[in-house]
């Protein structure tokens, strides 16, 4: 990867997730390759050892998490940073790709805001899915209805 690409990607990570997450993912970026859009030549996907690590969205130029990046973050960040913890009885459905409802959330990173990327985990810490928050971490605990996390990809294997 070119040094200017690496610098750009780390800057986007810092802006979107903060210094701690940028530090964790920047280690993986050193060994990554990028895929550029053929028409615009802008970076769209970042691959680590042939697996999709991050997707750079065209509409807002921010990252979408993938299962691989979710695994790296969950293994490296302190509890409950970037996590939405769900009840064990619904964990199977979340892992299959179903959305996380507010009433099923046991614990959540209160610094998350609506639109932020997050990782859904079970109460035992098992990775279930990655997705985008619909409401803030503070609101999740006070709401009894509605979707807390729109799941993009489940970890069911």
Automatic annotation (TrEMBL):
InterPro entries tied to this protein: PUA, PUA-like_sf, PUA_sf, TGT_C2, TGT_C2_sf, Uncharacterised_CHP00451
Regions that span the bilayer: none
PUA domain mapped to chain residues: 82-156
SMART domains reported for this sequence: PUA
CDD domains reported in the protein's UniProt record: PUA_archaeosine_TGT (cd21149)
Top-rank lineage group of the source organism: Archaea
GO molecular function terms attached to this record: RNA binding
Protein name per the record: PUA domain-containing protein
């Amino acid at each position: 990867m070119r040094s200017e690409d690496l610098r750009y990607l780390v800057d986007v990570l810092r802006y979107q997730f903060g210094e701690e997450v940028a530090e964790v993912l920047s280690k993986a970026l050193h060994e990554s390759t990028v895929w550029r859009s053929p028409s615009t030549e802008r970076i769209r996907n970042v691959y680590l050892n042939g697996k999709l690590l991050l997707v750079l969205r065209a509409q807002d130029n921010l990252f979408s998490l993938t299962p691989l990046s979710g695994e790296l973050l969950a293994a490296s960040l302190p509890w409950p940073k970037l996590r939405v913890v769900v009840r064990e009885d619904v964990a199977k459905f979340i892992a299959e790709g179903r959305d996380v409802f507010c009433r099923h959330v046991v614990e959540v990173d209160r610094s998350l805001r609506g639109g932020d990327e997050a990782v859904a985990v079970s109460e035992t810490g098992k990775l279930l899915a990655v997705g985008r928050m619909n409401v803030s971490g503070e609101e999740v605990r006070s709401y009894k209805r509605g979707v807390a996390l729109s799941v993009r990809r489940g970890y069911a294997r």
